[in-house]
Structure formats: structure tokens, C-alpha cells
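sry for the spam today, last one i promise. C-alpha cells for design, 291 residues
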């Protein structure tokens, strides 16, 4: 039974990436409008993600890893679980402050979530390809730009200026459905993560754990803090950004890695270990950068 369930991890990842996530992407983008003061927060998160992508890729090349493993390392080291784990922490740190929560949602969804939904699948496609020739890359790009997630991003951005109100009688049913569907994200992503977990060689995984943890929960929040200081963001905005950017690996990363044959097993192992390490690293990083 375990073998059969493990063999179905690709099926669950397809269900998540082709049905559940596109619905969430569209509704989240359609219902969010960005205030000018929040644009800098989104920019800070996005720049930090791009910088860590480059750092993880360079580390993978330096370690002479196989292409799919480099892709897994890049995915796990750059895209944090800002929504799944970040929101509860923000609510705990700033109780009863809707303005801070709104800042956190927009910075997370557009600064981290949008790259996760767009750049991450392209990385998995690229490094999961068997070759690097132009035809393979063209096929990978075509596959992504025709995917339900990319179409959902386009439709969501097109609807965003209309500022859909979830309290509107015409919109409310979709908002309620979104809340129901959102509950399936964590379950399906965790299921894929669990099915891909297996015993790995400590000699192989330890260097990757060190690299991914340092980049994801060390370099990324540090770069975020530097940018927040440069742009003279408020203390609360700095704290929100540092907390969000210090989150461990997003559980959706291994889902994309599994979906596109980009060493999903290594991605799942790294994501799982990073989540465990975050219990210690998040308080340490936050206290060093903020206090």
C-alpha cells in the first residue's frame, strides 16, 4: 500500500497544480489591490527571492550537483512558506492589527507567492528537462505558458483593477469556495511531501541542508532587512518583511519538483529538514536583525 501511495505522488501534485492552485491564484490576485506604500514591500520580497535563486544556483554549480538536484536546491532555498507558516506568526506578533496583516498578505502573495507560482514551475521544468538544447527549453517554456497556473495569473492580474469585494453577493460564493479549496492546499502539499520522503544518505544531504538553510533562513532575511533599511520602511514593516522572508521552504516547492521530475525526493527531504530547523533559526535570525 505504501508503495502504491508513493507512486501516486505525481498524481496528487498534478491535482494541486492544475486544479486547486489556479483557482486560488486567480481569486487572490483579483481581490487584492496594492497601495503605493506597499509596492516597496512587494519589491523587497521579490528582489530577495531573485538574489537567493542566483545564490542557490551558484552553490549547486560549485558542488557539481546533477541538474535536477541543482533545481531542487534552488527551489527549496529560495521560496519560503510565507503564507502557510508566516501568517500565523504575524497574527501572533501583531494581534488585532489589520493594517499589518494587510501589508503581510500583499507582500507575501505578490512578493513571494507570485514568484512561487510562476518562476518556481519554470525552474522545475528547466532543471527537470533531460537536456539543455533549445528545443527542450522551448518545449518547457511552451508547457508552462499553456499551464492553468499561468492562465490564472493573467486572468487574476486582469481582474485586479476591478477590486472584487468578497462581500459582494455575486463574489461571496466564490470567496467561500476559495476558503474551502484553500484548505486542500496544505493537505495535498503535505501529502506529496510525505510521499516523497525516504531515507537519504547523510553524506549527500548534509551539505545541501547547510546550503539551503543558510540561504533560505539566513541570506534571504538579511537581504530583506538591508533593503527595508535602504527604503526607510517603518519598524513594523521591517519586522513583517524579516519574519516572512525567514520562513522555511514552502511545501509547494517539492510539489513542483515532483510534478516536473526535478529530484522531488531531495526537494522533499530538504524542505522537511528546513521546517524542523526553522523552530530554532527563525527566533535567532529575527533577534539578530531586528533587536
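last one done:
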Amino acid at each position: 500500500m505504501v508503495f502504491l501511495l508513493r507512486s501516486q505522488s505525481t498524481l496528487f501534485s498534478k491535482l494541486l497544480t492544475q486544479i486547486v492552485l489556479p483557482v486560488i491564484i486567480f481569486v487572490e490576485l483579483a481581490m487584492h489591490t496594492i497601495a503605493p506604500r506597499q509596492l516597496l514591500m512587494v519589491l523587497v520580497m521579490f528582489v530577495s527571492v531573485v538574489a537567493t535563486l542566483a545564490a542557490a544556483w551558484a552553490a549547486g554549480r560549485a558542488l557539481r550537483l546533477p541538474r535536477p538536484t541543482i533545481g531542487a536546491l534552488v527551489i527549496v532555498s529560495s521560496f519560503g512558506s510565507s503564507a502557510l507558516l508566516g501568517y500565523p506568526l504575524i497574527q501572533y506578533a501583531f494581534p488585532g492589527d489589520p493594517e499589518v496583516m494587510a501589508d503581510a498578505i500583499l507582500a507575501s502573495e505578490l512578493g513571494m507567492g507570485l514568484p512561487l507560482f510562476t518562476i518556481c514551475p519554470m525552474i522545475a521544468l528547466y532543471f527537470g528537462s533531460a537536456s539543455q538544447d533549445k528545443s527542450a527549453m522551448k518545449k518547457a517554456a511552451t508547457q508552462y505558458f499553456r499551464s492553468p497556473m499561468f492562465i490564472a495569473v493573467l486572468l487574476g492580474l486582469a481582474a485586479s483593477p476591478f477590486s472584487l469585494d468578497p462581500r459582494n453577493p455575486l463574489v461571496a460564493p466564490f470567496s467561500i469556495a476559495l476558503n474551502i479549496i484553500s484548505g486542500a492546499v496544505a493537505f495535498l502539499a503535505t501529502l506529496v511531501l510525505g510521499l516523497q520522503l525516504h531515507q537519504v544518505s547523510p553524506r549527500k544531504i548534509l551539505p545541501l541542508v547547510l546550503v539551503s538553510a543558510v540561504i533560505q533562513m539566513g541570506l534571504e532575511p538579511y537581504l530583506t532587512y538591508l533593503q527595508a533599511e535602504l527604503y526607510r520602511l517603518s519598524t513594523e514593516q521591517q519586522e513583517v518583511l524579516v519574519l516572512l522572508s525567514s520562513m522555511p521552504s514552502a511545501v509547494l516547492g517539492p510539489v513542483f519538483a515532483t510534478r516536473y521530475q526535478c529530484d522531488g525526493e531531495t526537494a522533499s527531504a530538504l524542505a522537511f529538514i528546513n521546517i524542523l530547523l526553522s523552530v530554532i533559526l527563525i527566533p535567532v535570525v529575527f533577534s539578530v536583525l531586528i533587536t
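DSSP finds 13 helices and no strands in the chain. ok im logging off now
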